[in-house]
Amino acid sequence: MHITKDLVAASATPLVLGILVEGESYGYAILKQVNELSGGQLEWTDGLLYPLLHRLERLGHVESAWETPPGGRRRKYYRITDQGRAELAEQRRQWAAVVDALRGVWNTTQSIKPITAPAWEAGR
């Protein structure tokens, strides 16, 4: 299934903040986790993730630091800030409202019978 760019963009901030609320991480690990969480449906690229991380950093939602783990290579790690936690809580409220509205629409439309053409249009 193809997920549209608009939906990917809209969900990117809460996904990244949600991942970082579990603990600090670096770019490749975030990409891998998004892929795993979505069952392979979301395959983000560096071109989507890094501009988002930089924007979240400018907004004060995340902070970063270069670190070299023992026996590892130097990576830029990102961690959520208190401001980012507040933003994630707000994103969760907004997404819950959207999901509830969609459920309402989908539940309503499942019980609605398709509209058939009037008899006078059938001959056209």
Describe the structure.
- This protein has 124 residues and is mainly alpha-helical.
- It has 5 helices and 3 strands.
- It has a 3-stranded antiparallel beta sheet.
- It is elongated, with a radius of gyration of 21 Å.
Question: What's the helix and strand layout?
Answer:
Layout: H1 5-20, E1 25-26, H2 27-37, H3 46-58, E2 62-67, E3 75-80, H4 82-111, H5 119-122
Antiparallel strand pairs: 1-3, 2-3
List keywords for this structure.
single chain, 124 residues, 11% strand, three-stranded antiparallel beta sheet, 5 helices
Summarize the structure.
By secondary structure, the chain is mainly alpha-helical. 60% of the residues lie in helices and 11% in strands. It is elongated and about 75 Å long.
**Low-confidence blocks of residues:** none
Class by SSE composition: mainly alpha
- Report the principal-axis shape: elongated
Order the strands across the largest sheet as they lie in space. Answer: 1-3-2
Helix content: 55-70%
pLDDT averaged over residues: 91
* Helix/strand order: HEHHEEHH
Largest β sheet strand count, sense and barrel closure: 3 strands, antiparallel
Instruction: Please give the count of helices.
Output: 5
Number of strands: 3
Strand content: 5-15%
First CA to last CA: what distance? 36 Å
